[in-house]
Amino acid sequence: MNTSWHKAHVLPKGASLEARIAWHREHQKRCGCRPVPPKLLDQMRREPAIDEYLARVSPTTHALLQELRKKIHALLPEVEECIAYRIPAFRYEGRVIAGFSATSTGCSYYPFSGTTLKTVARDIEGYSQTKSALHFDEPLPTALVRNLLDARISEGMRRTPEEDRMSKWSTKSATPRTRRRPSTPPATGPRGARQRTG
Ligand SMILES: [Zn+2]
Questions:
Q1: What is the pLDDT along the chain (198 residues), one digit of tens a residue?
Q2: Spacing, Cα 156 to ligand 1 middle (Å)
């Protein structure tokens, strides 16, 4: 225990959330004699800039993105929010593995990788997309979000098949195909056509 640090940094009773978060961040670096309380840890994983971002978009888009945000947290409780390339994003084990943005026509999901969408090509056949972005204007199904995260995480980890079998992700049965969206026109992006082969 870093006694001198504690003496110099006493957290006052009734301190604000911001003050408590700041104290615990510093404490984990300087001392770490006790863990961050779980509730506070949950707050620390949230990025206020994402709330600010969501406050500026239309109510429909706000609801869609907020729902996606919740799904990502539910699927991957260890994930931390951040801003990457100026958009709301999610960091897992040090790597940015997902992000989203509001677009002029709806929303986009970014796996922050050029290969993830190819990996899940079957799941996203009905969606408008580019190599790096999946467009959507209704909630992304949980099974699809899970497959997107799973595919992205697997890329970076380079697991052996044995490790893969032991992964908590591969033990869950993934929905093989997501519901088609007949109202959606075929991929309209300049690179969309390439994504349709799979
Ligand atoms: Zn301490």
A1: 999 999 999 999 999 988 998 899 899 889 999 998 988 888 888 888 999 999 999 999 999 999 999 999 999 988 999 999 999 999 998 899 999 999 998 999 999 999 999 999 999 999 999 999 999 999 999 999 999 999 999 997 655 555 455 554 443 334 444 444 444 343 433 443 444 443
A2: 34
Domains delineated in the chain = 47-158 (3.90.1150.200)
Cα(8) to ligand 1 centroid in Å equals 11
- Between the CA of 11 and the centroid of ligand 1 the distance, in Å, is 11
What is the 7 CA–ligand 1 centroid distance (Å)?
10
Q: What is the 3-state secondary structure (H, E, C) of the chain?
A: CCHHHHHHCCCCCCCCHHHHHHHHHHHHHHCCCCCCCHHHHHHHCCCHHHHHHHHCCCHHHHHHHHHHHHHHHHHCCCCEEEEECCEEEEEECCEEEEEEEECCCCEEEECCCCCHHHHCHHHHCCCCECCCCEEECCCCCHHHHHHHHHHHHHHHHCCCHHHHHHCCCCCCCCCCCCCCCCCCCCCCCCCHHHHCCC
Whole-model pTM above 0.70? Answer: no
